[in-house]
Amino acid sequence: MSTYAMCVRYDGIEVDDTYCDAMTRPEPIHEFCAGRECQPRWETSSWSECSRTCGEGYQFRIVRCWKMISPGFDSSVYSDLCESADIARPDERKVCKNPACGPQWEMSEWSECSARCGERSVVTRDIRCSEEEKLCDASARPLAEKNCTGPPCDRQWTVSDWGPCSGGCGQGRMIRHVYCKTSDGRVVPESQCNLDTKPLAIHPCGDKNCPSHWLAQDWERCNTTCGRGVKKRIVLCLEIVNGKIKTRNAADCDVAKKPLEESTCFERPCFKWYTTPWSECTKTCGIGVRMRDVKCYQGKDIVRGCDPLVKPVGKQTCDLQPCPTEPPDDSCQDQAGTNCALAIKVNLCSHWYYSKACCRSCRAPHS
């Protein structure tokens, strides 16, 4: 606030300054004072793209409470300030309706490549129509299989030291770990090594001489990733002669006591992720977004049981050629009460609030 002097007549009427003695004129005084507190307000970012490329989806935006703390200093504040001021909060989500999806192809993820090192094989995926098969365009049906190449032929079995012997002749076992490793020492899935040459992980032990007896290795992985499958293990007839292990024919061991070599196994139920083909990019130049629907099926039913850790992405950026520079929008005006000069000085134009509130200043070329 400021004080200023004026020359007045004895009856209080203001007259020209020359009637007063300039030597006795009081100096103007400027003092800071607190004006009334500024009201908080809701500010919103622009709406996101629709979450679906067809049918009914959602758009989202950021809603924040803002308040001018002091002249030139506008800041986001806790939402309760706006809520306690009883200002209606703008919606953060709204429904967006695109043309109905209609029948479209949906595909599962590709299977694992089963090719051995240096060999070629085929990976497959399931293709289904979101409605009756005949309603989908047969000419646009995605491929259900493609070629794949096995891992490089540098994979080798490596083993740890044997553990202690766990018992007497015929019952004793020594255990070690067997890994499939690359030439630079990385451990990779066992399927990348030649399973026919896999070293034994369980060894018989006991006396120097042990009669022939059965020895079962650990079960291999179930041959399916979901539903009912089969698991196998190696069962050998072995004898220890003078401390050395000899392989014998199955007839040399008691066939009635032979452990099972094969068993049924059940992995989690067969829930499978399916995706639709990618949509067009939302922009024709610059950086846009493309989307696809991601659904979880069990048989023909859409369910919720799929593994969220392997959920395919439903949205990704698409980087196209750069856009030509756009002419400035002359109708764009800075918002009163926002210190845009300060916003530019501290490089706040990239912030969604200031790019909107100071749209004219932020678009102007700065030296």
TrEMBL record:
InterPro entries xrefs = ADAMTS_ADAMTS-like, PLAC, TSP1_rpt, TSP1_rpt_sf
Q: Which GO terms describe its molecular function?
A: metalloendopeptidase activity
Keyword Flavoprotein in the entry? The reply is no
Highest taxon of source: Eukaryota
One of this protein's GO BP terms?
extracellular matrix organization
Q: Which Pfam families match?
A: PLAC, TSP1_ADAMTS
**PANTHER family this protein is in?**
ADAMTS A DISINTEGRIN AND METALLOPROTEASE WITH THROMBOSPONDIN MOTIFS PROTEASE, ADAMTS-LIKE PROTEIN 2
Q: What is this protein called?
A: PLAC domain-containing protein
Q: Origin organism of this chain? A: Hirundo rustica rustica
